[in-house]
Amino acid sequence: MEIPYVIQPRPDTGIYNAKVGIWLFLASEVMLFGALFSAYVLLRVGAVPGEWPHGWQNLTLGTINTLVLAVSAITTLLAWVACKTRQFGKFKFFHGCTLLLALAFLCIKSEEYREHLTHYEIQLTDGRIAEGDMRENNSQNDYVLIDGRYVAEEKDLYDLRAQKDPKPEEIKIPRAQIKEMQNYGPWHNDYLALYFTLTGLHALHVLGGSIVIGYLWGPGRRLWQTDPEHFTNRVEVSGLFWHFVDLVWIFLFPVLYLM
Amino acid sequence: MSESKTAQPHNAQFVGGSELHEHPVDYKSYLRRCGYVLIAVLCSTALMIWISFLPHYDWPAKAGLILCVACVNAFLVAGFLMHLLSEKKMIYTLLGFVAVFFAGLMGLTIYAMHDMPVGTVYH
């Protein structure tokens, strides 16, 4: 038995079935991300004024990732147009570009995660707080070494933008003086929990989209030989998903990096 | 059930199906359109960053402005790249339902902000 309406539109909907399917899926995705965004709104608006992190993200890397996804959205569309105009060589080129851009996005995102996970807040027994990038944390040594700074109060850590890029210096802290030490992982505070949840879920979508795009670019392209129209519809459906991934990032970027 | 297919030579344009099935695809005009959209998206991203650095506005004003620009950015992607400007009624109906549920979700969030237990102390 063959699946009907994979190429021709259904008379009642006016579109082929896979397209209805992907739009239904995207509708459920809107609600999934919507729920997480509403959690962000609830926590952000409810936060004590001056105690919500600002400028904690690497804006340069975030902007580069925004550009990478924007360009990949264009190459996805051009790959589909190449299929429509029966230029398979161009399809391979543009879909290959999309795949590379997706991998670039994931690499940049993992670098951002690495930056957070190696950044520490260290509370000292004398009441001061040290924060910075961990350089040496060997349990055999009786000290830790960070590139960072001392602050007097916790609230001095929140708005990094207002502090005009504080210059980090090398700080050697004896372990005996450390009261508590924690990196900037999702367990650190509400903002980082939301950051890792939202961007992690988004990165999983990028990974999933890359696998589909990689399949169509690799083994899946055999369908082009036997049924190019069906193949083109698959490219269109995967492209719609990819544009949705871009759309989510369009809101994630300002919410997490700028506001 | 049999699948309905249109057998065509490989150098022909497709017919049937989505928006562009009904219109011949002009590769160069598409390339141009994509270029415009990309430039607009890049400009709006730059604008958002610039707004976030404006010194004389408080957070709610900045957040509102940035979200407005993000919405324009999203409209460009959804409207032009996802062809939402020329989709079928079925898709619009589906998105209408999504909009209603999304508004309900955000409405519940706003409602929850004011639903504090009696005796809550605000700092």
Description:
The complex is a heterodimer of chains A (259) and B (123). Chain A is α+β, with helices and mostly antiparallel strands and 259 residues long. Chain A has helices at 17-46, 59-84, 88-117, 190-217, 222-226, 228-258, and strands at 119-124, 129-136, 143-151, 169-174, 178-183. Chain A has 2 domains: 23-116 and 193-258, Four Helix Bundle (Hemerythrin (Met), subunit A) (Up-down Bundle); 117-183, SH3 type barrels (Roll), CATH 2.30.30.100. Chain A is built from 6 helices and 5 strands, in the order αααβββββααα. Chain B is an all-alpha fold. Chain B has 2 domains: 19-82; 88-114. Chain B is 60% helix and 0% strand. Chain B is built from 3 helices and no strands. The longest helix of chain B has 26 residues, at 27-52. Chain B is flat and about 65 Å long. At the A-B interface, helix 1, helix 2 and helix 6 of A face helix 1, helix 2 and helix 3 of B.
Helices and strands, with pairings:
The complex is a heterodimer of chains A (259) and B (123).
Chain A: H1 17-46, H2 59-84, H3 88-117, E1 119-124, E2 129-136, E3 143-151, E4 169-174, E5 178-183, H4 190-217, H5 222-226, H6 228-258
Antiparallel strand pairs in A: 1-2, 1-5, 2-3, 3-4
Helix pairs in contact in A: 1-4, 1-6, 2-3, 2-6, 3-4, 4-6
Chain B: H1 27-52, H2 59-81, H3 89-113
Helix pairs in contact in B: 1-2
Keywords:
heterodimer; A: 259 residues; alpha+beta; Four Helix Bundle (Hemerythrin (Met), subunit A); SH3 type barrels; 2 domains; five-stranded antiparallel sheet; 6 helices; 5 strands; 58% helix; 14% strand; elongated; B: 123 residues; mainly alpha; flat; disordered N terminus
Main sheet record of chain A: 5 strands, antiparallel
Give the number of helices of chain B: 3
Task: Give the CA-CA distance, first to last residue of chain B.
Answer: 67 Å
CATH architecture descriptor name of the largest domain in chain A: Up-down Bundle
Helix content of chain A: 55-70%
- Residue share in helix of chain B: 55-70%
**Main sheet characteristics of chain B:** none
String of helices and strands of chain A: HHHEEEEEHHH
Mean model confidence by pLDDT of chain B: 79
| Beta-strand proportion of chain B | under 5%
CATH-level-4 superfamily name of the largest domain in chain A: Cytochrome c oxidase, subunit III, four-helix bundle
